[in-house]
Amino acid sequence: MRDVVVVGGGPAGILLALLLARKGADVTVLERRTTVSDRPRAIGIHPPAARLLRGCGVPLQNALPITSGTARDRDRVLGRLDFAEPVLSLPQHELEHDVRALLADEAPECLKIGVTAHSVRPFDGGVAVETDGGAVHARVAVAADGTGSGIRSRAGIAWRPVPGRADYLMADIADGTRLGSEAALWFVAGGVVESFPIPDRRRRWVARIASRPGKHGGDLARIVAARTGMTVPPCPGEVSRFTASQHLAEHWVAGRLVLLGDAAHEVSPIGGQGMNLGLLDAAPLATAVMTAVATGELRSLHEWEASRRPSARRAIAMARFNMAMGVELPRFAQPARRGAIRAMNLSPVRSRLADAFTMAHL
Ligand SMILES: Cc1cc2nc3c(=O)[nH]c(=O)nc-3n(C[C@H](O)[C@H](O)[C@H](O)COP(=O)(O)OP(=O)(O)OC[C@H]3O[C@@H](n4cnc5c(N)ncnc54)[C@H](O)[C@@H]3O)c2cc1C
User: Fold this and answer.
1) What's the gap in Å between 13 CA and the centre of ligand 1?
2) What is the tens place of the pLDDT at every residue in 146-199?
3) Three-state DSSP class for 315?
């Protein structure tokens, strides 16, 4: 019997496996995909996660430091935040490749790709993770299988919606602006537009759109131009539409099964915290799992959940606030939002905001 089976080789599952392997655990990761997905997802690595990753030996040498952010209406800068420690911009798939490389050095046989796990069945002193190729037995199973976690739903753990839902268009395209390494957010009547630098002279553009189908079509370039005055190249093939929503699993520990990362909490991408949160959950979970494996007692897992749940709640609340600030508003309400943003730019609110936006609280 193994010490730990991790279902899901995304960032949270792989980092956990790396940390466990370094602590001497016999750990295996079951990942259904055969390659890392290069679908655009996380780009922002906030200081606490960057410190954790560097401490684990993840080089982050291709990451681009974002040292400031501005809040704007169409033509004016309403406020500016300078970050004491930069937010790093690095596409998620690049980070995943880097962490996988470290895991391959540490435990070459650990990651099993092309293996789908179906359920986790408890037995006395352990769990059996059912796959097409038979069951894998371990003392503890960790489901890091993402927001749609099949392991969570088959274990009967409720997936509670929490407020915060909105629709966005997004594209990563060549940077023709003069914004340099600055993040820029336009709070305009039509809805927020966000723009972040990413490596290789590109920028991510995200625009809030009305949830009513068909209202904005897929024309991100037109929306960006109309709301910000910035010109971005037409990018029909690159644009994705996503609905940001938020959920929290009712509990993260059920017997010897633990939920990790997006399987435990779905945080809206607006604010860029979901992956960071999962990485920061993984570090103390590795210690808690080692204790559970060594002692046979599960108290350390419950203590881990109790210590990490408040961070998930804060991230969800912050993302909800971010989404509310970016809502489409009638023109008459726009001055009130401008005033609120200007007020937030005053010290000491500004330093608290800088802490919030760099996830000092996670
Ligand atoms: C547009 C967008 C932008 C984002 N931006 C940011 C950002 O800037 N910063 C940030 O922190 N977060 C961001 N996020 C969120 C971030 O992408 C997620 O929080 C992160 O991917 C979660 O990692 P995870 O390892 O928990 O799960 P996932 O990345 O979802 O990985 C789960 C893995 O489990 C595998 N799997 C699923 N089911 C099974 C099964 N039954 N058997 C075996 N394997 C299975 C999947 O193939 C997958 O590899 C963004 C998300 C989106 C959509």
Assistant:
1) 10
2) 999 999 999 999 999 998 778 889 999 999 899 999 999 898 888 889 999 999
3) helix
